[in-house]
């Protein structure tokens, strides 16, 4: 049997550090459930000490998730470790991931600490973390620019203090693959009791080598990789989970390692992250890009038709690309609807939420003859109108004519009152957003407007993400509808509602 490679997903922590990708507690729980379904071994759910909201989200995820280990990040100080320890308490399996920088530049310029003090802080942090859980991970931040001898010294000390996983991050994306393999080999050889711990890689993508470096680390002895869905993350991102998993699986002749990942859940996970964060997936992105399995050239098409493996090294189905499966229609009942949502892992909690979703499904089925899994995902991702929220869409009429300025006639509820406004814009979406702003007067800046067709065909639902910023707050709003203008209006209004509630918040580590 092949050895195990542990998959540590940090989409909810390092991924959330992408500008504008901050997520609400409920969104994080939805993502965590999908990661659990995907078979991720460890979910880094956040950084408890960063904000009370982060701690609360980790706590809620620890309550909800049973199959994956739930982890919180913590700097090597008492306050962070205690916050992490409290946040993961409800978890069936909880981990504290503590870190301190070890490179000369970070120790001298950022921490202003001597190497001896850094070792002392790391040991104290690991010992305190062990009072909360047996599962403690230690990271040497900026390890790939640190002195190997110093790393061996600090790793020896934290292993003696009780660390079970040793993570070697390429924090700034500086590493080069063949040297990374050597670096891991050297550390594993030079650290006493290195066989008592799992060695881990955590690579950033500043030079586009995060996945290559992670795999190189595996060749050098790492048995845990830290990664994110779609490679989301700080700056140029982290190593992409889907690429690492599929590389290890497709090239088992080279790696001879097994993961616990259900690869058919990769594309649903990718779509969920993309729709919640508003970060689109580039069409030519490996594994999860829309063109990853599209064959354009005649020679390739001919080859694939004759024998798929002439031009495909893995199948689209194996990573969860469905054949636009027709699931439900106008005549489907509530039971069939509930069963399909359950199969897809998107069943909302509580009868009231299910009833509301079913009512929206019926409305959609009236307009669209065939309802696909993607439609259901979009429908459930869009929470629909909520009478308790500050702003809501009542009705919309948009006139767009060649040579004329588009006009939006909007009726919108704001704090219990009905407002009727007319606005003009450069295009129809611009007119709608101006109409909304003339009522809300939020003064927010529009950072992102993205539209995605959920299925093929011109009767596809449009899934729209709007990202707004106001002062130090950045929020995303989503809307889904067959009418792209209605979806856009809902997305803008949903973002405005978030700006006015606790759900919207500053970047956790700002
Ligand atoms: O990139 C990094 O060094 C990190 C650590 C906190 C593990 O994210
Ligand atoms: Zn990182």
TrEMBL record:
Catalyzes the condensation of the acetyl group of acetyl-CoA with 3-methyl-2-oxobutanoate (2-ketoisovalerate) to form 3-carboxy-3-hydroxy-4-methylpentanoate (2-isopropylmalate). InterPro entries: 2-IPM_HCS-like (IPR050073), 2-isopropylmalate_synth_dimer (IPR013709), AIPM/Hcit_synth_CS (IPR002034), Aldolase_TIM (IPR013785), LeuA/HCS_post-cat (IPR054691), LeuA_allosteric_dom_sf (IPR036230), LeuA_bact_synth (IPR005671), PYR_CT (IPR000891). Mn(2+) binds at residues 14, 202, 204, 238. The lineage of its organism: Bacteria, Pseudomonadati, Pseudomonadota, Betaproteobacteria, Neisseriales. Residues 392-510 are annotated as: Regulatory domain. It catalyses: 3-methyl-2-oxobutanoate + acetyl-CoA + H2O = (2S)-2-isopropylmalate + CoA + H(+). Its cofactor is Mn(2+). PANTHER family: 2-ISOPROPYLMALATE SYNTHASE 1, CHLOROPLASTIC-RELATED, HOMOCITRATE SYNTHASE-RELATED. Pfam families: HCS_D2, HMGL-like, LeuA_dimer. Its EC number is 2.3.3.13. It is an enzyme of class 2 (transferase). This is 2-isopropylmalate synthase. Homodimer. NCBIfam families: leuA_bact (TIGR00973), PRK00915.1-3 (NF002086), PRK00915.1-4 (NF002087). SUPFAM superfamilies: 2-isopropylmalate synthase LeuA, allosteric (dimerisation) domain, Aldolase. Residues 5-267 form the Pyruvate carboxyltransferase domain. Keywords: Amino-acid biosynthesis, Branched-chain amino acid biosynthesis, Cytoplasm, Leucine biosynthesis, Manganese, Metal-binding, Transferase. Pathway: Amino-acid biosynthesis; L-leucine biosynthesis; L-leucine from 3-methyl-2-oxobutanoate: step 1/4.
């Amino acid at each position: 049997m092949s050895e195990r490679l542990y998959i540590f997903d940090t989409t909810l922590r390092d991924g959330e550090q992408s500008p504008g990708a901050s997520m609400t507690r409920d969104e994080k729980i939805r993502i965590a459930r999908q990661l659990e379904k995907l078979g991720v071994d460890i979910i880094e759910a956040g950084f408890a000490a960063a904000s009370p909201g982060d701690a609360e989200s980790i706590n809620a995820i620890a309550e909800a998730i049973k199959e994956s280990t739930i982890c919180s990040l913590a700097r090597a100080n008492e306050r962070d470790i205690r916050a992490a320890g409290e946040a993961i308490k409800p978890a069936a399996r909880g981990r504290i991931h503590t870190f301190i920088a070890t490179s000369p530049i970070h120790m001298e310029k950022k921490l202003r600490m001597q190497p001896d003090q850094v070792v002392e802080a790391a040991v104290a942090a690991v010992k305190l973390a062990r009072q909360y859980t047996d599962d403690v991970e230690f990271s040497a931040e900026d390890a790939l620019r640190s002195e190997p001898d110093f790393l061996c010294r600090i790793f020896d000390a934290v292993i003696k203090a009780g660390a079970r996983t040793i993570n070697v991050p390429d924090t700034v994306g500086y590493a080069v693959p063949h040297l990374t393999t050597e670096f891991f080999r050297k550390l594993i050889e030079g650290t006493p009791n290195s066989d008592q711990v799992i060695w881990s890689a955590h690579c950033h993508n500043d030079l586009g080598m995060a996945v290559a470096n992670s795999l190189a680390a595996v060749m050098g002895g790492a048995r845990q990789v830290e990664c994110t869905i779609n490679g989301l993350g700080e700056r140029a991102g982290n190593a992409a989970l889907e690429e690492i998993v599929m590389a290890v699986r497709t090239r088992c002749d080279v790696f001879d390692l097994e993961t616990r990942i259900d690869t058919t859940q990769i594309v649903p996970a990718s779509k969920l992250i993309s729709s919640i964060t508003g970060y689109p997936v580039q069409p030519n992105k490996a594994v999860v890009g829309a063109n990853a399995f599209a064959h354009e050239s005649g020679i390739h098409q001919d080859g694939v038709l004759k024998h798929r493996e002439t031009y495909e090294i893995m199948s689209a189905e194996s990573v969860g690309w469905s054949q636009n499966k027709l699931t439900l229609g106008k005549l489907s009942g509530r039971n069939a609807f509930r069963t399909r949502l359950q199969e897809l892992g998107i069943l909302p909690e509580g009868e009231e939420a299910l009833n509301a979703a079913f009512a929206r499904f019926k409305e959609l089925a009236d307009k669209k003859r065939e309802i696909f899994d993607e439609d259901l995902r979009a429908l459930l991702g869009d929470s629909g109108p909520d009478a308790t929220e500050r702003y809501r869409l009542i009705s919309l009429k948009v006139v767009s004519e060649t040579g004329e300025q588009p006009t939006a006639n909007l009726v919108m509820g704001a704090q219990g009152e009905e407002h009727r406004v007319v606005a003009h814009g450069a295009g129809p979406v611009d007119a709608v957003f101006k109409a909304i702003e003339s009522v809300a007067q939020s003064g927010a800046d529009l950072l992102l407007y993205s539209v995605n067709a959920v299925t093929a065909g011109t009767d596809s639902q449009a899934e729209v993400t709007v990202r707004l910023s106001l002062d130090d707050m950045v929020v995303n709003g989503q809307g889904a509808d067959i009418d792209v203008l209605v979806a856009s209006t809902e997305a803008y209004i949903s973002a405005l509602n978030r700006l006015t509630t606790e759900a919207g918040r500053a970047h956790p580590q700002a």
